[in-house]
Each structure stands twice: as C-alpha cells, then as structure tokens.
C-alpha cells in the first residue's frame, strides 16, 4: 500500500502469510459476529478476517490508513485513539457482545488492556498480538517473576491463554522483541468486587515485591482498619489471584 510505518504509532506490520493464516484460524470469525479490530494497519489480518465475516469495525489512529479503510466495502472506520473508544456503545449498537482483535501497539498495550477490562461484560473474547513478555506476565501463575499486578488484575476477570509465538522477522519493520498471540475470555460469573479497590490493593502489594507483605500491604490494611485475617508473611508473588480477590471483597469498596 506504499505506507511507511510511523514510529510514534508503534507500527510494525505483520507480513508472514503463514502466521497470518494461523492467527485468523485461531480467531475463527463467523458472519454476523460484531468483530472489532484495533489498529488494522495495512490489513494483513483485516483482509482475511473480512473475507470470512463479511463486515467488521476497525479502530485506526493514523489518518492516512483510516482514509484507505473507509474506501473498503464492509469496513466501518473509527478514526480515534483506542483509549477514547466507547466499546460499551459499540456492543450496545451490535446488540451482542463484541469480539475484539488486533496487533496492539506495544508502547500502549497495557493501557489498552485496562481500558477494555472496564467493559469485559460487553465482550465475548479478545485475541491480541502483544510483546511476548507481556503475554507471559498476563498468563503467569503465582511463584515466579512474571507474576505481578498485571497477572492478578486480568486473571480475576478473564481466562487467559497464550496461543501462538510470533518471531520478529514476521513483521516489517521487525520489532526488537518477540511477540505472541493471547486469547482472553471474560469469565461468565466473575467475583463481585470493586475493581478499583482490587487495583489499589494489588498495586500496594507489588510495590515492594522483594519484601514480605507486612511491610507494604500490612500497613495499607491497617490504614483501612481491616480487622480480618490474612497471611502477610509472604511476598506478593506468592499469593494466588483468588486470595487477592477474597481480600478485596473482605476489605470492601472505599467509602463514598
């Protein structure tokens, strides 16, 4: 398409046709599904997705690329920063949960994940290309260095599965990191809690991850006047997601 990748947008275009086919088969789009692609770029995934489902919505910040996609039949273009897109409104307009896909800009991948976390109840699934290191953190279990705030904040709400490794040479220009595909399925019956409270608690817990929790989370719990029991003689990375969730429920939402 004669487009030069723009560094400020974190553009790396997928060009490996074999991998593109494998990714589209993983997503398995069907006609009538409300498919939303974040950052279609030059259309490596967009074109085969469109061929399978007949219509889709794309979110594109680059005005040159957005203009090109507007000329394509079956493509609805939202020219916007993805962090400003109202995904709940898109789901309401479709009258069914969204399927969200994309090769996410690596420089803002975590903010995008948290933006979508707020509307997880309006999403059927998410299939994203991300930096492999980020995918490993998303899917990590307790006890290792990859397990952290991102692991807890996503796993309380989604079932997360790393599905495919993608090497740098699959892109033009090649990024300096390995990439991977991840599938995220919102839990049908997530725990009832205040997500902001869980976020606050987990941020405090991992703020001094090399120290025992009594040095960080213990002080925070005292400030919240929490009188319940919780084992603080552990490091943050040793506590399973379910225990963080139970603690957030026990502490309760912040007083209005």
| Radius of gyration from the alpha-carbon trace, in angstroms | 20 Å
Shape label = elongated
Beta-strand percent range: 15-25%
Which structural category fits the helices and strands? Answer: alpha/beta
Average residue pLDDT = 93
- DSSP strand count: 9
Pattern of helices and strands:
EHEHEHEHEHEHHEEEHHH
What is the distance, rounded to the nearest whole angstrom, between the alpha carbons of the first and last residues? 53 Å
What oligomeric state do the depicted chains represent? single chain
Main sheet characteristics: 7 strands, mixed
| Weakly predicted, low-confidence segments | 1-10
Total helical elements: 10
Give the proportion of residues in helices: 25-40%
Strand order of the largest sheet: 4-3-2-5-6-9-7
């Amino acid at each position: 398409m004669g487009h030069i990748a723009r560094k400020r947008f974190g553009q790396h275009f997928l060009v490996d046709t074999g991998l593109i086919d494998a990714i589209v088969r993983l997503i398995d789009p069907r006609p009538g599904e409300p498919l939303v692609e974040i950052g279609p770029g030059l259309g490596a995934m967009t074109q085969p997705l469109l061929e399978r489902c007949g219509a889709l919505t794309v979110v594109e910040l680059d005005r040159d690329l957005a203009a090109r996609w507007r000329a394509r039949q079956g493509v609805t273009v939202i020219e916007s920063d993805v962090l400003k897109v109202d995904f709940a409104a898109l789901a309401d307009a479709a009258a069914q949960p969204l399927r969200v896909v994309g090769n996410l800009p690596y420089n803002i991948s975590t903010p995008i994940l948290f933006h979508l976390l707020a509307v997880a109840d309006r999403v059927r699934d998410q299939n994203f290309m991300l930096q492999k290191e980020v995918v490993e953190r998303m899917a990590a279990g307790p006890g290792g260095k990859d397990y952290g705030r991102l692991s807890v904040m996503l796993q309380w709400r989604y079932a997360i599965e790393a599905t495919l490794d993608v090497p740098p040479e699959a892109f033009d220009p090649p990024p300096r990191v390995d990439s991977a595909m991840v599938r995220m399925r919102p839990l049908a019956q997530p725990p009832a809690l205040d997500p902001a409270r869980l976020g606050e608690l987990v941020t405090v817990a991992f703020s001094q991850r090399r120290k025992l929790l009594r040095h960080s989370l213990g002080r925070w719990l005292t400030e919240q006047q929490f009188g319940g029991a919780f084992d603080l003689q552990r490091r943050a990375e040793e506590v399973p997601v379910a225990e963080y969730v139970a603690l957030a429920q026990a502490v309760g939402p912040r007083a209005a």
